[in-house]
Design goal:
Helix content: 40-55%
Shape: globular
Mean pLDDT: 79
Largest sheet: 2 strands, antiparallel
Order of helices and strands: HHHHHHHHEEHHH
C-alpha cells in the first residue's frame, strides 16, 4: 500500500512535494538543486574581461557574454549543458535535452508571464541589467503562475522576499514546485531536489521549463534574456 493518502488522486503530486516542506529529514540519495544556483564557474570568461569581472565580484559576469548571446555564439543548449554539466541524473538529462530541442527563443512561459515580470521590475525601479541574478530568478518563478503570483505579490520586497507571509491556498502541484524552487534560490536552503524536478509525475513540462530557465537566470544573470536560439 502506498504511504501517500492522496496517491492516485489529483492531489497526489502536492502531497509528495509537501514531503519537502521546511525541516524535512535529510535523505541519503538525490542531488541538492541549490548547489547549481549562484555557483562559481560556468561559461569561460574572455581573457580581456577577467580584471573587470573580478572588480564586479561576479565570476559569471563576462562583459562579452551578452554580445555572444546576441551574435548566436552562445545558445540555449550551451547554457543548459554548462549549468547542469555535473548532474548525473539520467532522467534530468533526458528532460533537459528535450527542453533544449523545443526552445523557440523565449524564456518566459507566455505573454502574461512576461508582462507580470516586467511590471514588477518597473514597480521596484530595478535596472534589470544590474539586478541581482537570484532576485530576478525568484521574481521569474513567482510571476510564472497566476495563482502563485496572486498569493505572493504582497510578500515581494525591494531587498528580498517574505516567504512566511505567503499562504499556499488553492495552489497546483506545479505552482508549489515553483514556490519551493523560488524559496531555495532566495534562502540558500534545501527545499527541492534535482531528483524531484526530474520526476515527470511530480512536475510537468511547463513547470520544468520555468524552473530550468530560472536556474539559468540565477547563474548567468539578466543577459540570458538576450538568448535567441
Amino acid at each position: 500500500m502506498s504511504r501517500y493518502f492522496m496517491y492516485g488522486t489529483s492531489l497526489g503530486g502536492i502531497e509528495q512535494l509537501m514531503m519537502l516542506a521546511p525541516n524535512f529529514s535529510q535523505r541519503r540519495s538525490g542531488i541538492v538543486i541549490n548547489n547549481h544556483f549562484n555557483c562559481k564557474g560556468g561559461i569561460e570568461i574572455c581573457n580581456g574581461c577577467v580584471a573587470k569581472v573580478e572588480s564586479r565580484g561576479n565570476l559569471n559576469d563576462c562583459f562579452c557574454f551578452k554580445e555572444k548571446l546576441e551574435a548566436d555564439e552562445i545558445g540555449y543548449t550551451d547554457l543548459i549543458r554548462d549549468c547542469f554539466r555535473s548532474i548525473k541524473n539520467y532522467t534530468l538529462k533526458e528532460r533537459l535535452k528535450l527542453l533544449s530541442n523545443r526552445f523557440t527563443g523565449q524564456l518566459f512561459l507566455n505573454h502574461n508571464h512576461k508582462e507580470r515580470f516586467h511590471h514588477l521590475i518597473q514597480k521596484q525601479d530595478i535596472d534589470i541589467d544590474d539586478g541581482s541574478p537570484s532576485h530576478l530568478a525568484v521574481i521569474f518563478l513567482l510571476t510564472a503562475d497566476e495563482v502563485l503570483w496572486n498569493i505572493s505579490e504582497h510578500a515581494v520586497c525591494l531587498n528580498g522576499f517574505d516567504f512566511s507571509n505567503i499562504h499556499l491556498r488553492q495552489i497546483s502541484t506545479e505552482g508549489y514546485a515553483l514556490y519551493q524552487t523560488a524559496k531555495t534560490i532566495s534562502t540558500g536552503k534545501e527545499y527541492i531536489r534535482i531528483s524531484e524536478i526530474a520526476d515527470k509525475e511530480l512536475i510537468d513540462d511547463t513547470a520544468f521549463k520555468i524552473i530550468i530557465n530560472a536556474s539559468l537566470i540565477a547563474k548567468y544573470g539578466a543577459d540570458v534574456f538576450s538568448i535567441r536560439k
